[in-house]
Amino acid sequence: MKENQKHKIIVIGGGYAGIQTVKNLAKNPENEIILLDKNPYHYMQTEVYDLIANEEDFAQITLDLFTYCSGFKNSNVSFCKREVINVDFKNNKVITTTDRLSYDYLVIAVGSRTKFATNVEGLREYAYGIKALHRAMYFKQKFEMSLFKKVDEGGATCIPLSIVIAGAGLSGVEIAAQMASFAKEFYKQNHFICRKLNIILVNAAEHILFGMDKHLVDKSTKRLLDLEVVIKNKQKVVALTKTSVTLSSGEKVFMDFMIFAGGIEPNGVVFNLKLEKNERGYIQTKPTLQTLEYKNVYAIGDCTTLRDKDENILAPTADIAEQMGELCSKNIKCDQKGQKLQEHKIRSRGILIALGRRYATAKVFGIYINGYFAYIMKKMIERVYSKRLDIHSCIGCKKIFDE
């Protein structure tokens, strides 16, 4: 690098992995960093279950990326609200809907989106996803209005509100538990005659949270059943109408609405990129997190698939995404100095599953924790993360208004 010439680094995606990468790279004043995202906010998706159940509003689970990027002391980070449509890897240029931006290093951290299977009739028309904030907000409003409608009907006739959740992974289980516990308290505290909420969790596997620790699976299953959530294992949704879901067994379940948490895929721009991908469309990377084709291009977070030393796929959690951001920034630093890059040794540091108000189950560094203490631990981790970002954003906000 020539004297006084800065390293131009572009990070695409303001999720957990992208934010962590930017934070670490900003420490070097010789880096000039641009964070690109089509949304002007960082969405703390791990807290979406609280959003839906009215324990938090959208302001509490989002972070303004303009103020965040303005808060670095070296003033070497800028945020551009742009939708990336492709990358010209040969000429080191990111192509957005409005311009072409040059880079020395590129970090692709665009995350994932709900995958609406095309072979399921009516799925895209009648199901709600919660991977994107606007979808989660829309569903939250729908949920509240449906509760109000049932209360408004009231009287001697009680027709329960019925919700189908397709997919019993982490998101599906947490949302089912939180909605069931919220409704239970809502009806009880307000002394409504009609106190019933039917939640049906449809699961294609033999048990919920397939692939996770048996203790966590057992605790989560018991909690859901205690909350009167109906679990239908070894079943798939094969068709939807506005008022019903048809399952692979032939059973038809009548419902007010459905949440689809049955699968994810990389965000749209990934499909345009001329990079090696696996059979599910995720970007293939080296153990250093570099793409297979270009040593100055990294892929991290939910748009790629990471395996542990035993070749097991690591779950796409915020914890894993942040660790990928840490390693990515370290390896860019190593490359800048001409040093050998580090191969990943990333593993899950723990899993915490929120199962309704004041209850969670967890495995942290091999130790099992259940109940209220696990819930407090999960909330503390979320609060610390959020507070750290808020403090940084306050610095950025002050800088903006002082200029």
* Major beta sheet, strand line-up: 5-2-1-9-20
The CA-CA distance between the termini, in Å, is 31 Å
Please count the beta strands (DSSP E, at least 2 residues each): 23
Total helices: the number is 9
Output mean pLDDT. 89
Question: In the CATH hierarchy, what is the class of the largest domain?
Answer: Alpha Beta
Percentage of β-strand residues: 15-25%
Strand-pairing-aware structural class: alpha/beta
Contiguous low-pLDDT stretches (5 residues minimum) are none
List the helices and strands and how they pair.
Elements: E1 7-12, H1 16-25, E2 31-37, E3 41-43, H2 48-52, E4 62-64, H3 65-70, E5 77-81, E6 84-88, E7 93-96, E8 100-102, E9 105-108, E10 112-114, H4 123-126, E11 127-128, H5 133-153, E12 161-166, H6 170-189, E13 197-203, H7 214-226, E14 230-233, E15 237-240, E16 244-247, E17 252-254, E18 257-260, E19 264-266, E20 297-299, H8 318-336, E21 350-354, E22 360-364, E23 367-371, H9 372-402
Parallel strand pairs: 1-2, 1-9, 2-5, 9-20, 11-18, 12-13, 12-18, 13-14
Antiparallel strand pairs: 3-4, 6-7, 7-8, 10-19, 15-16, 16-17, 21-22, 22-23
Helix pairs in contact: 1-8
Description of the molecule:
The protein is an alpha/beta fold and 403 residues long. It folds into two domains: 7-38 and 82-114 and 265-348, 3-Layer(bba) Sandwich (FAD/NAD(P)-binding domain); 123-262, FAD/NAD(P)-binding domain. Helices cover 32% and strands 24% of the residues. It has nine helices and 23 strands. The strands form seven sheets. The chain has a five-stranded parallel sheet. Strands 11-18-12-13-14 form a five-stranded parallel sheet.
